[in-house]
Design goal:
By secondary structure, the protein is an alpha/beta fold. The chain is built from twelve helices and 27 strands. The strands form six sheets. An eight-stranded parallel beta sheet has the order 7-6-5-4-3-2-1-8. A six-stranded antiparallel beta sheet has the order 9-10-11-16-13-14. Bound molecules: 2-acetamido-2-deoxy-beta-D-glucopyranose (NAG) (7 copies). Its EC number is 3.2.1.22.
């Protein structure tokens, strides 16, 4: 408890310095977009707000309603102020804010950093009107602002993600300053889409939350894409600043119940805001979806005051499963075992290898205590299941260690693979990397030492910043495949997630590779796969 108090005090201290209004835990609420697209109305918003209460969602923490795109009139008034579309919102913004507050809910507003709003051809956004609009948001009683990134360069091109204007932090920082200047606490939800570079760096300074990717699509494939994109943002996620994986598609009839649990759980452990997109109407939302989004134990993990994003600690790509681990208050941890395969499978792993000597475990979704766990665990996963274990009384095991670092620049390169030198302090830990690794190229290491025969855990340092924004709505993939072959044996493939905030910030993927022979004479070769390039390779070490 003392620990939690200290945390809150430290957190309040940050608010004063940063001036921006922060919520210490990820925001939870509802947004009109996934149900109503850019066609909200006063009736729809009021019914949804009342629905949120009727379904008891306020009781478990969902406390705001955001009116997304489509609310304003085409014309600003004679003073240049934004106006609500009087046909759609006859009572206007202030009355809607009062209504929301009367229900005990916060009022979420929406605008954009460009000329026009997303999803329209003529509705104004805030570029050039930042101060006036921030004042209007305050007058209407707004408690948060979602700030989007459409029409950044013209009144005709809605999405121009390669433009300097849409990639720059400047317009988002401008609105942050104007929100700071008004006499009302307004949370700021940056929706820049995670384009350009170093978004986590600048966005965590100004936003409660910041979108890391293109929109979620109402299909399972979005879950893989966005999950791979959030991986490196653990460096920036902290109390008051959360990477936003986008609104939930739970309850939108696209996923199975198992997949909805996976999606909700993955968002929860990564400390994404939990923003419901489903219709808040008991006739339109299934009891199962409602139960998933109301699960108090999963919500408590998301709302944990330590505010630490989970880490991808192990990936088994050909076997299609991952292990995730995240710190929680009270020396607890959340363990996530993600089955990306659309079939059941039995998986095994040694808790010691992820740093846990022993713990008390609770299966979160089944709400059952498992007692003490240690050593090798074998778990039967359903297709697309995310098993969540809450670990308490955790006794940590000694971290894995290595004696030698194998730098890619010192390996034997073949084919297209070429050395890239990086800026000082980048491409850690070596300062350089090998790029352009196609499937017919390789980066080969000889004389790799291991202490025993067989399977080894290796830490691969790589760079992938292929955020795949423009292809994301279809089947575009932000991961990169790379294969590893030991002593000439059959190469095995791994999908590498995003590594950082640009093409020089490395990440580490820890994988298990078989075929080693005791001694100093192992050959380890990395290659591309298929038609795409591999991630850039910095180097690796054997965690023996
Ligand atoms: C208000 O919204 C309606 C319905 O979308 C639209 O027909 C009308 O032109 C809008 N009015 C203004 C002034 O933007
Ligand atoms: C977009 O339209 C507005 C209003 O007509 C105008 O002020 C602005 O200059 C236009 N922007 C561009 C880039 O043409
Ligand atoms: C997963 O399997 C189920 C049952 O076979 C099938 O209906 C569904 O389309 C599959 N989902 C995906 C994303 O392939
Ligand atoms: C590459 O090998 C040379 C010679 O052994 C060594 O000095 C250098 O540190 C190595 N480079 C890296 C990045 O480890
Ligand atoms: C290697 O693969 C790349 C990309 O797939 C291709 O452009 C190139 O021609 C190939 N080179 C050789 C020598 O086969
Ligand atoms: C590997 O080790 C052997 C024996 O020490 C040595 O002769 C050889 O040059 C080494 N190969 C490389 C590529 O370092
Ligand atoms: C990686 O390989 C898998 C399996 O062949 C393939 O489905 C996927 O599209 C590949 N990803 C990329 C980015 O090439």
């Amino acid at each position: 408890m003392a620990y939690i108090t200290a945390l809150i005090t430290a957190f309040l201290a940050t608010i004063v310095i940063a001036r921006t209004v922060r919520s210490p835990t990820p925001p939870m609420g509802w947004n009109s977009y996934n149900t109503w697209s850019c066609s909200p109305s006063e009736d729809k918003i009021k019914e949804s707000s009342e629905g949120l209460l009727a379904l008891g969602l306020d009781k478990v923490g969902y406390n705001f309603v955001t009116v997304d795109c489509g609310w304003p009139s085409r014309d600003r008034d004679s003073d240049g102020k934004l106006q609500w579309n009087a046909t759609l919102f006859p009572s206007g913004g202030k009355a809607l804010g009062d209504f929301m507050h009367g229900l005990g809910l916060d009022f979420g507003l929406y605008s954009g950093a460009g000329y026009l709003q997303c999803g329209s051809t003529d509705l104004p956004a805030s570029l050039g009107f930042e101060q006036l609009d921030a004042e209007s948001f305050a007058e209407w009683g707004g408690d948060s602002l979602k700030y989007d990134n459409c029409y950044s360069t013209s009144n005709t091109t809605m999405v121009d993600s390669s433009s300097a204007e849409s990639q720059s932090p400047a317009r988002f920082q401008h609105m942050a300053a104007e929100l700071d200047a008004v006499d009302r606490d307004i949370q700021y939800y940056v929706c820049q889409w995670g384009i350009g570079t170093d978004v986590g760096h600048w966005a965590a300074d100004i936003g409660n939350t910041w979108r890391i990717s293109n929109d979620i699509y109402n299909a399972w494939r979005s879950i893989w894409r966005i999950t791979n994109q959030v991986v490196p943002y653990y460096r920036h996620t902290k109390a008051g600043a959360f990477a936003d994986m986008d609104m939930l598609i739970v309850g939108l009839n696209a996923l199975s119940a198992e997949e909805e649990r996976f999606h909700f759980g993955m968002w929860a452990i990564n400390k994404s805001p939990l923003i419901i997109g489903a219709a808040l109407d008991e006739d339109r939302i299934s009891e199962t979806s409602l139960e998933i989004m109301s699960n108090k134990e999963v919500i408590a993990i998301n709302q944990d005051l330590l505010a630490k994003q989970a880490r991808l600690v192990r990936r088994f790509t050909e076997e299609e499963w991952d292990i995730w681990l995240g710190g929680l208050t009270g020396s607890r941890q959340i363990l996530g075992i993600a089955n990306w395969r659309n079939d059941s499978q039995s998986v095994s792993f040694d808790l010691r290898s992820i740093g846990v000597a022993s713990a008390q475990a609770r299966n979160v979704w089944s709400a059952s205590d498992l007692g003490a766990v240690s050593g090798t665990q074998t778990i039967d996963l359903a297709g697309h299941e995310l098993r969540l274990w809450l670990l308490s009384d955790v006794v940590t095991s000694a971290p894995l260690s290595s004696s030698t670092y194998y730098a890619a620049v010192n390996a034997t390169r073949s084919g297209s693979a070429s050395i890239v030198t990086c800026a000082a302090g980048a491409c850690l830990p070596t300062g350089s990397k090998v790029g352009n690794i196609a499937s017919n190229a390789s980066v080969a290491f000889s004389n790799v030492s291991v202490q025993s025969d067989g399977k080894k855990i290796i830490g691969v340092d790589f760079v992938n910043y292929d955020y795949a924004f423009t292809t994301a709505w279809e089947f575009g993939d932000n991961t990169r495949n790379m294969t590893v072959s030991v002593n000439g044996e059959k190469a095995k493939r791994w999908a590498f997630p995003l590594s950082g905030g640009d093409w020089e910030e490395s990440g580490r993927l820890i994988v298990e590779v078989d075929g080693f022979k005791q001694g100093t004479a192992n050959d380890v070769a990395f290659s591309g796969f298929g038609t795409g390039l591999a991630p850039d390779l910095v180097g690796f070490e054997v965690l023996d």
